[in-house]
Amino acid sequence: MDIVLGLQWGDEGKGKFIDLISENYDITARFNGGSNAGHSIERNGRIITLKMIPSGIFMNGVQNVIGTGTVIDPVSFKKEILNLQVFDKTIQPGNNIIISRKAHLVMPTHKLLDIFMEESSGYTKIGTTKNGIAQAYSNKILRQNLRVGDIFSSDFQSRAKHILDRDYRMLEEEGMIVLPALEEISKEFFDGVEFLKKFNCTETEIYLNEALSEGKKVLAEGSQAAMLDIDHGTYPYVTSSSTTASGASNGLGVSPKKIGEIYGIAKAYCTRVGNGAFPTELLNEFGDDLRMKGNEFGSNTGRPRRIGWLDLPALKYAVMINGVTQLVLTKADVLSGLKSVAVCTHYELENGELVSVSGILPENAKPIFKWFTGWQTDFSRMKSSSELPKEVIEFLSFLETELEIPVAYLSIGPGRNEMLKLTDKYL
């Protein structure tokens, strides 16, 4: 099993890379997160945003697994499938989507609780997508939630109504101002559940392990990214699931011994959505211009992303904890035309100490930058790595030396096929 995951704060271009290589696999499997994800892929000149559905969905003969480590909102799932069917009528129940019976459900009141906590002064404002993901995971840990397999039980509706009634009363007592009718959100939820029942729901751990034993190739896909991991990310401004390579093993029920390549995706600069420390952030007109040039707006929410130079201490940390074997670098084309390009190599703490690897991102740290000569390149005309200018080669060589892994792919534009597979010949 190979793994693709983000190494920064998400939005690195995982969907595009997975879509590009998924034709080489028999199965693509999502191991974490929920409808808070937003993977954009290009099809026939149109950008399609996937939320719950794995990025191999449009590949003929590829099975797509939504694993145990995910949380599934039946309402959002139904809307996503119906939207995808506009592009591809073959996306139907029973065809190429398999869902874990052990994946937890996102209840409609989870989303309301998420909104309430984000807007209430009594809680830390995280900057979530307000999709109820944290509430679903927290109830999972509290052992108070329902799973996909429960929707087939005779008492599911009564158990679900009990949770909805309980949560709704709590929101009323807490004084949530805008509160939709319980009957309305309950009906939409149960309609989504009936739609979900049409799909192949099974023990995906057994399915995946049997497939691997038969020699089939599995590609594990993560949502969000390493620096948003619940344990290893920049807590509390993180997501609520494990976004790392170890999370893929746990979220899919596949032994670490069966993991092969670990592809880490990173931008040539950094972006972040939501709150939290960001030492290299560019709070100026240049940062605004880079945001527009790189189209740095959330594929799921449309929110403008925060912009900063590449953060090497955080990237080294992400490579280390994930055991990344190959780096996929995106958005270098966005930096084309600049006279110089910066990389933060260290943080300087208030006591003068220099930090070269860190997952904490100290609030008052001063970023120490190494500057590179910029590149003036029309990447859209490139056909092979032999055409890369020396300025880009110097930048890539520096990253390979510092990270001690190869830069295996370089994205040279937003299009699906605008990706160079690199070899040692470009160095």
Summarize the structure.
By secondary structure, the protein is an alpha/beta fold.
Give your account of this protein's structure.
- It is a single chain.
- By secondary structure, the protein is α/β, with parallel strands linked by helices.
- Helices cover 30% and strands 20% of the residues.
- The chain contains 11 helices and 19 strands.
- Strand 15 (340-348) and strand 16 (354-355) form a beta hairpin.
- Helix 3 (108-119) crosses helix 4 and helix 3 runs parallel beside helix 5 (156-174).
- The protein is globular, with a radius of gyration of 22 Å.
- The two termini are 29 Å apart.
Average pLDDT figure: 93
| SS strand fraction | 15-25%
Shape: globular
For the largest beta-sheet, the strand count, sense and barrel status come to: 10 strands, mixed
Secondary structure tally: strands: 19
Unreliable spans are none
Rg of Cα set: 22 Å
Number of helices: 11
Distance separating the two termini = 29 Å
| Secondary-structure element series | EHEEEEEHEEHHHHEHEHEEHEHEEEEHEE
Helix content: 25-40%
Content-based structural category: alpha/beta
Order of neighbouring strands in the sheet with most strands: 9-7-5-2-10-1-11-14-18-19
Looking at this protein, list some descriptive labels.
11 helices, alpha/beta, 10-stranded mixed β-sheet, 427 residues
